[in-house]
Amino acid sequence: MKSSIIIIGFFIAGILIGRIHAMPLTLDANELSLAILYALIFFVGVSIGSDNSVLSQVRSLSPRIALLPAMSLLGTMAGSVVVAFAIGKHSIAEWLAIGSGMGYYSLSSVIITEYHGAELGAIALLSNITREIITLIGTPLLYRIFGKLAPIAAGGATAMDTTLPIISRTCGAQYAPVSIYCGMATDFSVPFLVTLFCSIAT
Predict the structure, then answer these.
(1) Which of 12-16, 76-80, 101-105, 180-184 has the highest mean predicted lDDT (pLDDT)?
(2) Digit-coded pLDDT (tens) for 36-57
(3) Is the pTM of this model over 0.85?
(4) How many CB atoms lie within 10 A of CB 165?
(5) Could you tell me how many helices (H) and strands (E) the chain has, helices first?
(6) Measured CA angle at 136 (ends 134, 142), to 5 deg
(7) DSSP letter, residue 23
């Protein structure tokens, strides 16, 4: 809970600093955040490499782990259909296209904007950012209620980068390779699924 509050605090502080333009003009926020992300992933790699038991722990995991990306995708698609019926403003295929972003907002929102305009692209962007924030903030709670694989499935494509540090710290270093695998698998699915559902919706 404490780590979630700290994350929220830093997020709010970032918004306030951005609003008042307090960042030095010489610093590009996007480049800085990317550099910090790379550093976080590097240190996750160091922690995995320095723990001799990690690989043996990964090998002892159930082969069903291979199905985790598919389950994450299916759960997201089911949620997208529920949202489609609940909101109803757009077609089921359009909501499936939004859900297929799997947290990869920099790509999926651009594809959706090209196919269906800025409004749906903005919804996709907000949806994917929300997924990432929920995973960042909610990982400890997801872990306690649903188990160690829940934060990984919730993270989607972000499980291999932005949410990897919090997942590794909460679930254990032995789950970092699983998180990277799941993130990469869902990441690769994004351009195909988003494009497919966008094409169906046109």
Answers:
(1) 76-80
(2) 756 766 776 676 667 666 566 6
(3) no
(4) 20
(5) 10, 0
(6) 70
(7) S
Residue 10, burial from CB neighbour count under 10 angstroms (0-12, 13-18, 19+): exposed
SS3 162: coil
For 159-181, how does the pLDDT look when each residue is reduced to its tens digit (9 = 90+)? 988 898 899 989 988 888 888 88
Tokens of 64: 């069903």
Annotate the chain with three-state secondary structure.
CHHHHHHHHHHHHHHHHHHCCCCCCCCCHHHHHHHHHHHHHHHHHHHHHHCCCHHHHHHCCCHHHHHHHHHHHHHHHHHHHHHHHHHCCCCHHHHHHHHCCCCCHHHHHHHHHHHHCHHHHHHHHHHHHHHHHHHHHHHHHHHHHHCCCHHHHHHHHHHHCCCHHHHHHHHCHHHHHHHHHHHHHHHHHHHHHHHHHHHHHC
